[in-house]
Amino acid sequence: MKRLQSTLLLLLFVPLIKPAPQTRQDLHIIYDYGTDNFEETILNRDYEDKYLDGKNIKEKESIIPDMQRFQLQKDESATLTPKKENEEMPTCLLCVCLLGSVYCEEVDIDVVPPLPKESAYLYARFNKIKKLTAKDFADIPNLRRLDFTGNLIKDIEDSTFSKLSLLEELSLAENQLLKLPVLPSKLTLFNAKHNKITSEGIKANTFKKLSNLTFLYLDHNALESVPLNLPESLRVIHLQFNNITSITDDTFCKANDTRYIRDHIEEIRLEGNPIILGKYPNSFICLKRLPIGSYI
What we know:
The chain is α/β, with parallel strands linked by helices.
């Protein structure tokens, strides 16, 4: 009788007992196990476990503003306007320094930058330099070549090149010069074409002591006469497109020496001047080649 009562009670309470709810992990495994997407489901579950709880969501959200701030700082730094105060920048950052050569071309400098003491070549073409002074090269004794083509140079101190005893090539082409400074004695090439130089702006002895000068370019200026005392070493003389109206028997030759031959000169250009070369036959008797220009 007691056994029957126990059985009846058990039958009454069994329907009231419910199994414990399955966890999210159990649901994932039961639902996807054995399917083709099982591995993908496991990866998705790991992603959710890592980012979808409250703590990690906040961490993720805090990362995003930091990344945005970093990108903003990067964009702002990329649009900063570079400094125009070139003199405040080290020369070899503003220019290019390579084995004794300094290249400062088209960098908008308006003065000669401080140069490394070992500099032998300076290329400062197409800038805004207006003046050259002795201080610019006072501590650079090894300079052999200077090129200031295409600047705005109007004035050069007479002592600017006085300490450059090794200087061989000097280009001042395409500037605004009215006169020439004292030139270093070892020059082999001097180029001052396309300036505003007048005959009064060239002293009588400017070229006399330049015994190594080989190439002289003074074309496209305002010269009224051929410079005096041109050295014997000259091979090429360009004087075209000036205002030269006359020459003398001593301009290229020696009036008192009919045997004198000027051996080295290969080219003299005088075209584009008002002078009629045919009127001065004795001025060329020492030359192996007649100057280029108008003879009639």
